[in-house]
Amino acid sequence: MKGFNYKDYDGLGLAELVKKKEVQPMELVEASIKRIDSTNPKINAVINMMYEKARVMAINEQSGPFAGVPTLLKNISQEVEGEPITAGSKAFLSYRAKTDSEYVRRLRKAGVIFLGQTNVPEFALVAYTEPVQYGPTRNPWNPNHTPGGSSGGSAAAVASGMVPFAGANDGGGSIRIPASYCGLFGLKPTRGRTPVGPNFGRSWQGASAEHVITRTVRDSAAILDQLQGHEKAGAFHTPKFEGSFINAASTPLNRKLRIAFSVSSPIGTEVHAECRDAVVKSVKLLESMGHDVEEIDAPIDGQKIVKSYLMMYFGETAATLTSLESILGRKVTYRDVEPSTWLLGLLGKATSAEEFVLSIREWDKAALQMETFHEIYDVYITPTTAFGPAKIGELQPTASEQFLIRTVGQLGLGRFLKKAGIVDQIARKNLARTPFTQLANLTGQPAMSIPFHLTKEGLPIGVQFMAARGQEGLLLQLAGELERSDHWIDVRQNPLF
């Protein structure tokens, strides 16, 4: 098409061009490849290219609402048969996926074309993307800063115009945090809404959900329509949304909402003034739209939420390391993974079954508290993060912490660290930057980050909106209206777009 600019269109916009035969899928694939090849050396978002498979897919006729649209998959859980899936770790370098994940199958039916996989921190464990195996992914708004994690590679790819949307998942904020840092829209669906199989029936005990990071609300909504639905292996099942999410995203709200908001960290740590300002800006806009807004904290114990989240975190890491033995054909050692990962595994092994079960019960208590809260308040708003994007390397363990981690890892002294309270100190330091997102993962609620603020340094900061379980439609309705406001950040303002 004469004058066609690939980056000007979101996914549905590209699909419409294909449907009208104004462009061919192969043209979109080549435009995306050109963009990846020119931009990826600057930000390191894509670590496995699948160009030839994409070209074959582009030749074959596609069907579905996203027919012919290029995308990227996250390098953990979103498996393509025969392709490596390393989860950011050298330990998985020899592994090849034996089958497509259900997530990939559903996106194939929607007509998308997979061009590759995006960078993740090892085992998707932290909120920044700097794996030893692949190196750091950089933020397209400022390459000296992180795009967040664990879906940092996907967010950086979308924010730099490589693809209109990219695969992501969220077990503690891994969709919302990078969406916030990269000026994008990120929705974590209700537990059980999207598939996690067939190899697993639950991911991170149900805390983690699969979806995408997008530039536009309507792309997120339309993809959720394609992903939702019952799966055989699923341990959790959310009733199918009556109607369609894409319609919800374009339907104006016909009632006044009662909205609660808070700018206080649930664990009592500092919240940067600009993160608070982003929430206040959104609150003023919502009040001008006629909604009732009240400042009130969620009725949960933030310290218990963090502790129960960490208990799951430790246990899941230990289980992942044990599962590696079948791939490596031997026992796993601390040399197979990054030191911090090995330490988390040791802490998991030092955790009793009793402690693990008691921590899961805290999830259910919090879920009841939030469901009751949402009987009064339709939406709960907080900052997405407590600080803006950190600089590359800033969140890595200090020299003394690295020495401690190596020593404890080599000697297997996880139980000692746990009893000494050192783990709580390290955890508090890391979660202090991102204390708001874990709640929705443990309660199973939907939550979204919207791009609503730029710092004085020109870096994006998101605002988080939560709703009762099953209420993605309401969040998408609200997001659709906010997207049309002057406060919504246009990612095309960033220097690398």
UniProtKB/TrEMBL annotation:
Its EC number is 3.5.1.4. Transmembrane segments: none annotated. It holds the Pfam family Amidase. InterPro entries: Amidase, Amidase_CS, Amidase_dom, AS_sf. It comes from the Bacteria. Keywords: Hydrolase. It is an enzyme of class 3 (hydrolase). The keyword Methyltransferase does not apply. One of its GO terms (molecular function) is amidase activity. The keyword Kinase does not apply. Residues 27-476 form the Amidase domain. Belongs to the amidase family. This is Amidase. It comes from Fictibacillus halophilus. The lineage of its organism: Bacteria, Bacillati, Bacillota, Bacilli, Bacillales.
